[in-house]
Amino acid sequence: MTAPALGRDYRLLWSAAVSSRFGDALRTPALALLAATMTRDPRAIAAVTVAGQLPPLLFGLLGGAYADRWDRRRTMAAVDGARAVVVAALAVLVATGRAGVASLAAVAFLLAALGTLFDAASFAVLPSLVPPAALPTANGRLQAGTAVAGGFLGAPLAGLLFAQATPLPFTVDALTFALAALLALALPATPTARSCACSPRKGVEKGRFVAHNCKIGGGGRGLVWAEAWAGVRWVWRDRVLWRVSLVAGGSNLAISGIMAVLVLYALEVLRVPPAAYGLFAAGVVVGGLAGALAAGRVAGRFGTLPALRGVLLAQTVALAGFALARHPLAGGAALACFAAGTTIWNSLWSAYGQRHVPPELLGRVGAAQRVVGLASAPLGAALAGFAGEAYGVAPVGWAAAAVFALVTAGAWRTLSGTTGRAERRVEPAARI
Asked: Where, by residue number, does the polypeptide cross the bilayer (predicted)?
């Protein structure tokens, strides 16, 4: 599939995503560094992470329902505009010396709450912009573009900008959100998706679930939760889909634990200089880029389920290597390999869901999977924070590797139990 075949509208979406990701790559390391300048208490730093992980669980299903009700283009633009205001307010607090751990947690919560609606809308809008056959290519290039913007541009600059002026990374992030909002408005209007409050039933399309008895229109507010639960029922009644969602939830327990204390782990265990933390974090994005470029070939060669099993095994080895590492280069390389596996997982999930879930359910099914897959993330972050305070952050790496190994052992048998036609239907759940 050539780039021109993806079309102008796809390029606008790609540009908006890349712009936003560049700002995220500046803000995320800077936020961690800012928190580390306020406190070295792992519990306080983990609390900021937990604050950013709760909204998908609290509002994820509602975000999916409204993403299926509203014009997805305008929804994305409005959300990015609101996020620009939130980050700009944080920059003002930092510049005036009024920012504290509580304000960082509040900003993380607000950005994540808005992100639940944006994620559902952006996941659902892509199939309306490109042909179905181009979805794997479109998803891969979208992830590759955001990886380049984050890894080669944003993340290496984060530590340098933070060292020059603490509010600077947050100011630039606010500007990138504003630019992304304008680019989203340039997309063609999307028709209001069909609102479906019914449960998916077993259809005649070779085992796929199809929605019946749907009606046009958003319906009243009383129907929002009924519409949201249609996505949950879809996930629940697809055996393979449900199994892989549970695997994602188990693995996110370990991933979230590492990410919650990563800044302290890098500074204290791997001895990464603070000014080089952005460069260290760039390794994760570079690994994600490699995974995005390889995802289609890996799935095409080995099949979806065998590819996912292999990804889990490779990630277990990479995470064990990360726990062993005591040097920035070794730790960064192991973390990059782990990130590559996560991107392969998420690429396969996106392409399958966008192809096989009915358009009127795309926002809700995607949101339901994120809720299941991310349910364990706040627990993992909280446990890592308390463990880091009690025993130091170094044992957190080993604990995460052990949890991930247990998940891989269980998933290896579970995912091998479904073969044949079901293997070609699997929609992996998104992971952190």
From this structure: 44-65, 77-95, 101-130, 142-162, 168-187, 240-265, 277-295, 307-325, 331-351, 371-391, 397-415
